[in-house]
TrEMBL record:
Cofactors (names): thiamine diphosphate
Highest taxon in the source lineage: Bacteria
GO MF annotation terms: oxidoreductase activity
Keywords for the protein's UniProt record, in alphabetical order: Oxidoreductase, Thiamine pyrophosphate
Pfam families for the chain: Transket_pyr (PF02779), Transketolase_C (PF02780)
Protein name: Alpha-ketoacid dehydrogenase subunit beta
Cited InterPro entries: THDP-binding, Transketo_C/PFOR_II, Transketolase-like_Pyr-bd, Transketolase_C
SMART domains for this protein: Transket_pyr
Domain Transketolase-like pyrimidine-binding: 4-179
EC number of the protein: 1.2.4.-
Length: 325
């Protein structure tokens, strides 16, 4: 196996699919010769040519519209939205046109599109560059929302997303692009969409997270273990659909749970997870399910974002609350 960081793993997944399927196209702002603002697509235009990997104008609505049109014609577009905050310009194309295409056409057409976008805080980026906006798409029927936390998952989930016959919104945390290296198979493999992963076994409390918050939760679990508390950490990997079966199995074992997300508190993935736990496992709970999230405010400027984002200590506090309920 090769050692890759998450950016390299995503690039490798794109290379695998561009090589395997001539209908896969990769496009967006500066993804060609420059290789993207974070160099995630570096070298792919040179390898596969300008007809397969190409730049677009600075117009997200055009990127989304091009992706929908190409998908109807039998292509599998991978369209990059340069930063997550720019999706507002393309929400009609993503959430209305792509997500509803199969329904609107009575199954005649589908939209096998991957919309890639970086997101995530802790990097002191400019406004609209780091927001966690997965909740906007997670509430949209017809589109899957995928958020990897590590290089192995990133490659397998990207390959699975490109091969999926419906649109996928694929979010890549900025702080994880270069955070660490891990063993990643160089060959073709997939990680199943809609399937969570238990990244740490435990018996006292379940911590449910995704993206960067998986690592925040694991750090908290490491500290909790020093206190004799064994926390189980679940990485959702796909936040729409949610793998409630894995969550319920864990809650039946631990009887307590918290959910950690980087997005603001209200109406997000954490709220949906808690609702489903209440519907399907409430009799196994010995305490309310708590959320560890930022407050319901606009994402702050860089000077105070570290105080705004969830931390291991905040996760530990929430665990202690449910244990002492």
């Amino acid at each position: 196996m090769a050692q890759m960081n998450m950016k390299e793993a995503i690039r490798d997944a794109l290379r695998v699919e561009l090589k395997r399927d001539p209908n896969v196209l990769l496009f967006g702002e500066d993804v060609g010769n420059v290789g993207g603002v974070f160099r995630a697509t570096e070298g792919l235009q040179k390898e596969f040519g300008e007809e397969r990997v190409f730049d677009t104008p600075l117009a997200e609505s055009a990127i989304g519209g091009l992706a929908v049109g190409l998908s109807i014609q039998g292509f599998r577009p991978v369209a990059e939205i340069q930063f997550v905050g720019f999706i507002f310009e393309a929400l009609d194309q993503i959430a209305v046109q792509a997500a509803r295409l199969r329904y609107r056409s009575g199954g005649v057409y589908n939209a096998p599109i991957v919309f890639r976008t970086p997101y995530g805080g802790g990097v002191k980026a400019a406004e609209l560059h780091t927001d966690a906006l997965e909740g906007l798409l997670a509430q949209t029927p017809g589109i899957k929302v995928v958020i990897p936390s590590n290089p192995y998952d990133a490659k397998g989930l990207m390959i699975a997303s490109i091969r999926d016959n419906d649109p996928v919104f694929f979010m890549e945390h900025l702080n994880l692009y270069h955070a660490f290296r891990a063993e990643v198979p160089e060959e073709d493999y997939v990680v199943e969409l809609g399937k969570a992963n238990v990244v740490r076994e435990g018996s006292d409390v379940t911590i449910i997270a995704y993206g960067m918050m998986v690592h925040t939760s694991v750090k908290a679990a490491d500290e909790l273990e020093k206190q004799g508390i064994k926390a189980e950490v679940i990485d959702l990997r796909t936040v729409s659909p949610i793998d409630i079966d894995t969550i319920v199995a864990s809650v039946k074992k631990t009887n307590r749970a918290i959910v950690v997300q980087e997005a603001q508190k209200s109406s997000g993935v954490a709220a949906e997870v808690i609702a489903q736990i209440s519907e399907k496992a409430i009799l196994h709970l010995e305490a309310p399910v708590l959320r560890v999230t930022p407050p319901d405010t606009v994402y702050p400027f860089a000077l105070i974002e570290d105080q705004w984002l969830p931390t291991p200590n905040r996760v530990i506090d929430a665990v202690n609350k449910v244990l002492n309920f």
